[in-house]
Specification:
The structure is a single chain. The chain is built from three helices and four strands. It has about 110 residues and is an alpha+beta fold. A four-stranded antiparallel β-sheet has the order 2-3-1-4, with helices on one face. Strand 2 and strand 3 form a beta hairpin. The protein starts with 6 loop residues before the first strand and ends with a helix.
Amino acid sequence: MNDNQTYEILIGLTTVSKKNDATSLVEKLLESNLIACGQIEGPILSAYKWNNKTEREKEWRISLKFPVNKKESLTRKIKEIHPYQIPQWLILSGQSTREYCDWVNQ
């Protein structure tokens, strides 16, 4: 690989409490052409504060790869279809190869 330049993609992270919710969310985003790839990991253990109480729950982590120009549309869709009242939605910038970036952008 002779191309030393890097290319930007975005990576979104969220969690849900059920594996079938994770699968459904990824499938809906793929069908909407908002993501190039969705990966589901889990179960994981999440510990967090909710209503001044420490909670611990089994969750499924979803990582989504998508083009920079889909950021706002994807954020709106996540808020619309996510089963949580206040979903985790973290967007990270990622550097990739030209080939992978081209694939994500298709």
